[in-house]
Amino acid sequence: MNQPPHSQHPHNPNESQDAVNIREDIAFDIVQESVLGLWKVVNNLTRIRPSKRDRYRVSIFGSARMQRQDPLYEGVLHLASELTVMGCDIVTGGGPGLMQAANEGSVIADPEDLTRSIGIRVDLGFEQDTNPFVEQIYNHQTFFSRLHHFVLISDAFVVVPGGIGTTLEALMIWQLVQARKLHDTPLIFVGQMWADLVEWADKHMTEHKMADPADISIPQCVERFEDAVAILRTAQAQWQQKNQSP
């Protein structure tokens, strides 16, 4: 008597699962290799630096939650206006709060539209839309590409009071200057909260030999927006002199 078809080829219940696992491992390796390959392409592309610009460009990092009636809003608006009068482009995250204050200050101080008010956004899914004072907008899907964009297009960074996102931005720029990935790039911290952060880093990092004193001195801490403007006025003059050299 003929055996039933299924009895001719005994089934191992683990066999198909092993095959699935092997295929998943191979697929993971392929995906990982492809993603790393894409990052290599991105790294190579970013070696092509943007062409020389006619205007100094300052990124301002700060809280998205600060309201217009807060004195800090007016302070950042005034800061951005002063820098715009100097001929600087202003770059922010393009959102509300102190980002809007900076973009607004840029637009108000530039009635002849000689400079740019720029926003570099990331899709958070819960934050408000781009503020109405952004003249040139860039949109990113990831924080990584967005932060890299700030680095690529900015000549100086001013960090005003903010939360976790602002702290991330501040520390990233600090680390890039410390690692000499950025050169001749002012990093200015405005406000006591950042002075406290630097003091904390000095206490816990340098005392335990986890950072050099020179690393801790990279951010220039100031209390007043006018002091930030003075630092950037000098930095802009040096930048202009360098760019005008043959």
From TrEMBL:
One of its GO terms (molecular function) is hydrolase activity, acting on glycosyl bonds. Keywords: Glycosidase, Hydrolase. One of its GO terms (cellular component) is cytosol. The keyword Hydrolase applies. The keyword Hydrolase applies. Its EC number is 3.2.2.-. InterPro entries: LOG_fam, LOG_family_nucleotidases. This is LOG family protein. It comes from Tumidithrix elongata BACA0141.
